[in-house]
Write a structure and sequence with these properties.
Blueprint lengths: L6 H14 L3 H5 L3 H8 L5 H18 L7 H5 L6 H12 L8 H10 L9 H14 L5 H14 L18 H5 L15 E12 L4 E13 L4 E10 L3 H4 L11 E12 L2 E9 L19 H5 L3 E12 L2 E8 L13 E11 L2 E14 L2 E15 L4 E14 L3 E15 L4 E12 L11 E12 L5 E12 L4 E2 L5 E2 L1 E12 L1
Helix pairs in contact: 3-4, 6-9, 7-8, 7-9
Length: 499
């Protein structure tokens, strides 16, 4: 009952519990609903279930008597090494030293044991030390005294050494390192597996289709080696292939695959990875609209090469790298593309990312300089409202002396109505100055506005509906009868499921 609960709060529950269940048999034969009712208010209900299950095991295997052998005690539901030692020493004065977080901290400071105390080998060493220090003539009192010492005097932070009754025997105090023990536990790197399935109404033929099924497996520790693999399957895979797979109708794409190494503020990755540029991303779950912006189609999707990021503080991260260029698994020429970027967090709700790509890309049978600068800003106004903005400018030199330029900007407005509803608005402008981006007439200027309404019935499912209006100063949109017009109105439905 005392787990994560104060003694003063436990006492009335304890008294009522013992009054109703004075012995092992009465607890073992009681309806579970009654046991849980008397436990109600303490939380951690698995403890009550284990307590009754242990009583039932004692009735079945030990004639309703409490076992005195340690091995028999460990076989009961809910009893581990610490609980077994505490029961045997306190109830029967058997010679077993307990080892919990408080005791481990006291022992570690007494013997100046450094490192992660929960590391298995070190924990075993601490158990041996606790066994050696145990007062055999009164094991139960000794265990309770050491636990109380750790809970009240030998605290995790700011230990009260002047009040400690064993300060003269403390090796850590003599060395002046008591406050550095125990060291902070190193967080173990976790392997993240994410599955995402996206189904939406295909605008081409008004049929439902699997547009994206994504699988991501990642292990990215704060220190040391890691990696990530990201696969995309479905119709979206057909349009995100990198050279030499460009134009391939395969519905399977290895979108990212890289190894990483982190040391302090520095992280290095090598392989295939997504771009720094742009607000929107390949994975539909990372966007709030169904359709993609025009700016999304104007930036690269992935790069193959190396990237370094350095975070000298919580407010600045700088990036640099070399890669094969825009969406190229294997390089089409010998020149490499330079990647530069910086993310700034001048204040907690505001983030700004500036990225640039500079290098030669194949144009026809020759090479031409292709440069891009992209700026993305995001402002979290409050828990409900999020604002975003993006500006992009790019140029492509064409052999023969001409240059194709384009620029544009987009604004994003996301408002969470409640835990289940979200409205997202996007407005953007794009100036395809020489028609190099979309292959239309020179000087075509585009405007677009999108409204998306999302319903999230639970943490795994998201349903979206969208209306989008596009407009251009030239007739560039193809109608169903083959004619062209200056405006276009589209509707979309999308369902997302996260496994």
């Amino acid at each position: 009952m005392l787990q994560q609960t104060r003694v003063a709060a436990v006492i009335p529950y304890y008294e009522k519990f013992l009054a109703r269940f004075p012995g092992i048999v009465s607890l073992a034969t009681a309806p579970q609903e009654e046991v849980l009712r008397l436990w109600s208010g303490l939380g951690y209900y698995s403890r009550a279930r284990n307590l009754q299950r242990a009583a039932q095991q004692m009735v079945a295997k030990h004639g309703g008597e409490f076992p005195r052998q340690r091995e028999q005690l460990l076989a009961l539901a809910g009893i581990g090494e610490y609980t077994a030692s505490a029961i045997l020493s306190i109830a029967f004065d058997d010679k077993h030293a307990v080892l919990d977080g408080n005791v481990a901290r006291v022992v570690a400071r007494l013997e100046a044991i450094r490192g992660d105390l929960r590391e298995p080998k070190r924990w075993s060493e601490l158990q041996l030390s606790a066994d050696r220090l145990l007062a055999h003539e009164s094991a139960g009192d000794w265990n309770q005294a050491v636990m109380e010492l750790g809970a009240t005097i030998c605290l995790p932070r700011s230990p009260q050494c002047l009040l400690c009754p064993v300060a003269n025997f403390c090796e850590a105090r003599q060395r002046g390192i008591a406050e550095t023990i125990p060291e902070k536990r190193k967080k173990r790197a976790t392997v993240v597996v994410q599955l995402v399935s996206v189904v939406l109404l295909d605008a081409q033929n008004n049929s439902f289709a699997l547009h994206q099924f994504g699988l991501t497996v990642a292990k990215q520790p704060k220190e040391g080696f890691g990696g990530l693999v990201n696969l995309t399957m479905g119709k979206d895979a057909e349009v995100i292939h990198s050279f030499p797979e460009t134009g391939n109708t395969s519905t399977f794409d290895l979108t990212q695959a890289y190894g990483s190494y982190s040391k302090g503020p520095l992280t290095l990755i090598g392989g295939k990875f997504t771009t720094l540029a742009g607000t929107e991303v390949i994975a539909s779950t990372g966007n709030t609209n169904i359709s993609r912006s025009m700016l999304f189609s104007a930036v690269p999707l992935t790069h193959t090469g190396v990237r370094a990021s350095y975070a000298p503080s919580d407010t600045v991260t700088v990036y640099g790298g070399l890669n094969n260029g825009w969406d190229q698994l294997t390089d089409q020429n010998r020149q490499k593309t330079l990647e530069l970027g910086v993310t700034l967090n001048p204040m907690k709700p505001l983030s700004i990312t500036v990225s640039g790509y500079f290098g030669n890309e194949v144009v026809g049978a020759a090479n031409g300089e292709r440069d891009l600068i992209d700026v993305v800003a995001n402002w979290v106004v409050n828990n409900s409202l999020n604002l975003g903005a993006e500006f992009l400018t790019k140029k492509q030199d064409i052999p023969g002396g001409t240059t194709q330029k384009a620029d544009g900007f987009a604004l994003y407005f996301n408002y969470t109505l409640n835990s289940q509803w979200r409205a997202s608005v996007r407005g953007e402008y794009f100036n395809d100055k020489q028609g190099g981006q979309f292959g239309t007439a020179n000087g075509t200027k585009y405007d677009e506005a999108t409204l998306t309404l999302a319903y999230l019935p639970n943490s795994s499912v998201e349903l979206r509906t969208e209306v989008r209006g596009d407009k251009a100063n030239n007739a560039v949109y193809v109608d169903s009868d083959g004619s062209t017009k200056k405006s276009l109105l589209t509707f979309g439905l999308q369902g997302l499921y996260k496994f």
